[in-house]
Structure formats: structure tokens, C-alpha cells
Design brief:
single chain; about 300 residues; alpha/beta; TIM Barrel; 8-stranded parallel barrel; 12 helices; about 40% helix; about 15% strand; binds coenzyme A; binds zinc ion
Length: about 300
């Protein structure tokens, strides 16, 4: 029996690094990207093309992408919030664009200074531009499982946004737990319904944060519902601009370690990935949340 393949979409150099205070120099970002792409990863959200005043860490997006040595077989993707970002990302020859629309009106305004409807119009224009240059364009629904301003997000609101994005021609969607508010019961229930309804024609992935320690439990819940694509951040880099001490995305190496332990296959070389997690700690100059890089993989026995 062949093992089920799970795709890991690395987001450390975007979602992870974007919230850090001290600017990470361009060559260090390039070094981290190149090291990550030697581990067997297939997809990476390498950067974002955003207003540098809003996100100073991503000000060198174009420079990073022109310097990085690209590995064949890896898709280098970028988050874009508006048409300007989409144009820049296409000029930088990104392999795919990702457009986020929040399920929460309040969070969307904080994030991009637009209403949800305005973001959807922007998403429509970005999708059309991407189609015209044959660039895949992924839709993402942020704060899909809860919002720090609005609290619970009704499932119907997420379903409504899925319908609207599908109407714009999107066929790959990520549902994001932007600030780590989802629990495993909720993930399994929501993703079960979503995949039942649209799973035969639409690709769905989960973007999870470990803000409250439920990250890997939510991965298992997603797997149980049939999800086969997960975002993760090497070493668990990241945080949340709205909670200074908050943990970041689920850690890529902890996720891969767990997936391999429970019988899934990712195509990723875990030992190499652990080395990259340690490299990330060196580059950032501090301890990062990833746990397997500290304890070592479960199968690595110690001398008696
Ligand atoms: N890349 C670079 N510069 C951009 C830009 C982009 N994608 N979009 C806008 N700008 C520039 C404009 O050219 C303008 O520059 P100027 O003042 O020199 O003329 C300036 O930013 C303001 O433009 P405006 O359209 O008014 O944008 P804004 O200030 O309202 O910001 C966003 C809106 C969406 C661009 C900004 O909030 C943003 O980049 N958010 C990203 C947030 C994010 O990455 N979140 C990640 C989690 S989803
Ligand atoms: Zn995120």
C-alpha cells in the first residue's frame, strides 16, 4: 500500500519573517530560501509584494527574488495584497500569486485598509491579470476560524467567501487560522463540510498557527477531514502583530516529523530540514519555537 502524500507549503520567509522587528538582510533571506529549497519542498511562499511602509521586512522582495538561485521543481510563490503587488510579483517571475481576503471585516481593514468587498474586487482584478500571464493564482480566506476583533466567525461566512472566490475563477483555496484560534473539533467539522461540498473540483489547504498550542492537533484534524496541503514555517518562525509574545505558524520540521511518524509521506528530507531550522535560529540570532530541532527526531536513540 502506498503512503498518502501530503504537500507542505513553506511560509517561513514570508509569514515568519514579516513580523520580526530587526530587518533581516537580503543575503540572509536568500541563504535561508536556498537552504529550504534543498530539502525536498515543492512549494514555498518566498515573499510578499506589499507596501514597505506596512511591512518593512518585505521591502526587498524583488531583490530577494532576483538574487535567489532557483531550484528546478520548486514553486516560488508570493502573497500580493493589491494590483501593484501582483504586477511586481509577475515581473519577478513568481510561479504563483496568493491573494488573501479576511472572513472578518475588522481584520481585513487592519490588514489592507480595505473592506472585504474591496479586497474581493482587488482579488478579481489580480486573478484576471494572473490568468493573462498564465500565472496560477491561489485564494486565501484569513481569520476563517476566529478573529481577535470579532471573535467567532460563522461557518456560513466562510462558505459565502468560498462561493465568491469560486465565482471569480479561483480553483485553489487556503483556509487560514491567522491568529491560532481554531480547535481540532472545529477544523474537522468545517473542513469535512467544505471538502464534501467543493472538494471534488477545488483544491483546499490549511494555513495554521500554533499561537495557543493547538497547531499540530489541528493538522491531524485536517488530515482526518481529508486535507492534503498544509502551510508551515521552518523552526516555527513568526508571531502575530497583535500579540507580542505569540508563537508563529506551525513549525515545518515538527509537522513533517509528525506526518512521517503517523504514516504519511511528504518528499521532504527531515534531517536536512532540521539543519535549516538551526540555520534559521542562527540567522535570527535567537531561540525559535520548533521542538524537534531541539529534542532530535523520535528515532534518534541516545547512548545508554
Ligand atoms: N508594493 C509596494 N508599494 C505599494 C504597494 C505594493 N503592493 N501597494 C501600494 N504601495 C505604495 C503606493 O505606491 C503608495 O506609495 P506612495 O505613497 O509613494 O505613492 C503607498 O504604498 C500607499 O498606497 P495605497 O494604495 O494608499 O496603499 P495603503 O497605504 O492603503 O496600503 C496595502 C494598502 C494593501 C498596500 C498595505 O496595507 C499592505 O501592503 N498590506 C499588506 C499586509 C500584509 O502583508 N499582511 C500579511 C498577512 S495577510
Ligand atoms: Zn499566517
Amino acid at each position: 500500500m502506498s503512503m498518502t502524500h501530503i504537500t507542505i507549503r513553506e511560509v517561513g520567509t514570508r509569514d515568519g519573517i514579516q513580523s520580526l522587528g530587526a530587518f533581516i538582510e537580503t543575503p540572509r533571506k536568500v541563504e535561508l530560501l536556498e537552504a529550504l529549497c534543498e530539502t525536498g519542498l515543492e512549494r514555498i511562499e518566498a515573499t510578499s509584494f506589499v507596501n514597505p511602509r506596512a511591512v518593512p521586512q518585505m521591502a526587498d522582495a524583488g531583490e530577494v527574488m532576483s538574487r535567489v538561485r532557483r531550484r528546478a521543481g520548486v514553486k516560488y510563490e508570493a502573497l500580493v495584497p493589491n494590483m501593484r503587488g501582483a504586477q511586481d510579483a509577475i515581473a519577478a517571475q513568481m510561479d504563483a500569486l496568493l491573494v488573501v481576503v479576511m472572513a472578518s471585516e475588522a481584520f481585513n481593514r487592519k490588514n489592507v485598509r480595505m473592506s472585504v468587498d474591496e479586497s474581493l474586487s482587488e482579488a478579481a482584478a489580480i486573478k484576471a491579470l494572473a490568468d493573462a500571464s498564465d500565472t496560477p493564482c491561489i485564494g486565501a480566506i484569513g481569520t476563517a476560524f476566529g478573529c481577535p476583533y470579532e471573535g467567532d466567525i460563522p461557518e456560513e461566512r466562510v462558505s459565502g467567501l468560498i462561493e465568491r472566490l469560486l465565482a471569480l475563477g479561483f480553483s485553489d483555496l487556503m483556509l487560514a487560522d491567522t491568529t491560532g484560534m481554531a480547535n481540532p473539533v472545529q477544523i474537522e467539522r468545517t473542513m469535512g463540510r467544505v471538502l464534501d461540498r467543493w472538494g471534488s473540483s477545488v483544491g483546499f489547504g490549511l494555513h495554521l498557527h500554533n499561537t495557543r498550542g493547538m497547531g499540530l492537533a489541528n493538522v491531524v484534524a485536517g488530515l482526518n477531514a481529508g486535507v492534503k496541503l498544509f502551510d508551515a514555517s521552518v523552526a516555527g518562525i513568526g508571531g502575530c502583530p497583535f500579540a507580542p509574545q505569540a508563537a508563529g505558524n506551525i513549525s515545518t520540521e515538527d509537522t513533517v516529523h509528525m506526518l512521517h511518524e503517523i504514516g504519511y509521506e511528504t518528499g521532504i528530507d527531515l534531517e536536512r530540514l532540521i539543519e535549516v531550522a538551526r540555520l534559521a535560529q542562527g540567522i535570527l540570532g535567537r531561540e525559535l519555537p520548533g521542538q524537534v530541532m531541539k529534542a532530535g527526531p523520535r528515532w534518534q536513540l541516545h547512548a545508554v
